[in-house]
Amino acid sequence: MKEINEKARELMKGFCRVCKVCDGKACAGEVPGMGGLGTASSFKSNVKALANVRLNMRLLHDVTAPDTKTSVLGLDLDMPVLAAPIGGVSFNMGGGISEEEYIDAVVGGCRARGIIGCTGDGVPDFLHEAGYSAIKKNDGLGIPFIKPWEGDELDEKLEKARATGCTVFGMDVDAAGLMTLRQMGRPVAPKTPEELEKIIAKVHDWGGKFVLKGVMTPDEAKLAVTMGADGIVISNHGGRVLDYTPGTAEVLSDVAGAVKGQIAVLVDGGVRSGIDVLKMLALGADAVMIGRPVSVAAVGGLQEGVEKYFENVKAQLLQGMVLTGSQNIKAIKPSVLFD
Predict the structure, then answer these.
(1) Which element (helix H / strand E) includes 75?
(2) Residue 94 to residues 8, 14, 125: CA-CA distances in angstroms?
(3) Measured between alpha carbons, how far is 91 from 273 in angstroms, rounded to an integer?
(4) pLDDT tens-digit profile of 158-217?
(5) Residue 53: helix, strand or coil by DSSP?
(6) Among 1, 62, 102, 314, which one has the highest count of C-beta atoms within 10 angstroms of its own C-beta?
(7) What pLDDT digit, counting tens, does each position of 101-117 carry?
(8) CA distance linking residue 188 with residue 178, whole number of Å
(9) Residue 61 domain-assigned?
(10) How many domains are contained in the chain?
(11) Whole-prediction pTM value?
(12) Which secondary-structure segment (H or E) carries 313?
């Protein structure tokens, strides 16, 4: 990983410093780029909130070979981890590799490690086109996230996503804060529950599942259940759309507690290691998305870099499960956490 990170640092110069500690401090306000919006308070809060979660170490047990496998949204995963939907290599990551090389590495690397990669959306069109192509190449094993576009663009992209063979569709409603898209004549906007119900019903008619990304409060999590969503992602869009939000780890327990067992609960924000994954699971998540570190691994090492990164994440998760006495994913309870 050291070599991969050094290569990424070279290729991402001016867009990401590939800091030893990815905490949003050095890149505050660098959007486009890999930073957080404004003061980067929301990005920093994600990292700080997770850092403040501590674990109870337990070793008087017989857990020596934990099982990390799980199933989420009808997808069988080698561990409860997905790559978050991030794109825009040319304007966010320095353009050292092409969009196609990047997203192929993410989706293909995830598949090779037995997990799922998500793809992003945006302007120009090659962003989503590269993502859809990568999912199709990987036999539909990917989740395309579509922004909350206004007008016909949303329906057109849903149809294109369907053609990839995917079984899960996502919408990052948290992207409604991307004012740059409106300035480019491609507006995104919040969606009413009524609008989302129709979108979700369409996906269900296709036999697919629908995930809503950008839920940060218990009331909106309950709304997602009422609308028929199959999953939510607790996310503040990596701190890139609204300054001064809480970290996702701060709100996770309350949000998950409001809908646990009714809907799949995923979370992203500040996750860097397998220990961070363990913390999020103990706080109530069913699965965890990882963003910036996957992008760095893809730029610095293509698919091999992504595979290596997730290999490390799994090793760290396994170690954490042994040292907290967690035999399998269901055994990761709030009691794992030091209160």
Answers:
(1) strand 75-77
(2) 10, 7, 18
(3) 26
(4) 999 999 999 999 999 998 877 667 667 787 889 999 999 999 999 999 999 999 999 999
(5) coil
(6) 102
(7) 999 999 999 999 999 99
(8) 7
(9) no
(10) 1
(11) 0.96
(12) helix 292-324
Contact 112, 134 (CB under 8 A): no
Q: What is the DSSP string of 174-185?
A: GGGG-HHHHHTT
Q: Which domain holds residue 141?
A: 71-327
Query: How far is it between the farthest Cα atoms of the chain?
Result: 61
With tokens 């409604």, the residue in question is: 176
Single-letter residue type at 7: K
| Backbone torsion region of residue 196, taken as left when φ is above 0, otherwise alpha when ψ lies between -120 and 50, otherwise beta | alpha
> At 281, which CATH number?
3.20.20.70
Residue corresponding to tokens 């939907």: 85
> Cα torsion for 48, 43, 332, 303, to the nearest 10°?
-130
User: Rounded to whole angstroms, how far apart are CA atoms 266 and 280?
Assistant: 9
DSSP per-residue string spanning 109-135: HHHHTTSEEEE---SSTHHHHHHHHHH
Residue 2, SS3 per DSSP:
helix
Question: Could you tell me how many residues make up the chain?
Answer: 339
- 237 within 8 A of 278, measured Cβ to Cβ: no
The set of residues, in sequence order, having a beta carbon less than 8 Å from that of 42 and lying 6+ positions away, is 36, 236, 239, 240, 242, 243, 244, 245, 247
CA distance 336 to 327: 12
First and final CA of the chain: distance in angstroms? 33
Q: Report the C-alpha gap between 324 and 140 in whole angstroms.
A: 35
Listing DSSP states for 269-307 in one string gives: SS--SHHHHHHHHHTT-SEEEE-HHHHHHHHHHHHHHHH
What is the Cα 151 distance to its own chain's centre?
Answer: 26
What's the rounded mean pLDDT across residues 24-36? 95
Residue 22 domain-assigned (yes or no)? no
The tokens for 283 are: 């706080």
Give the span between the Cα atoms of 216 and 206, in whole angstroms.
28
- β-strand pairing of 70-72 with 287-290: unpaired
> Backbone phi, then psi, for 42, in 5-degree steps?
-70, -40
Tell me whether residue 26 is in a domain: no
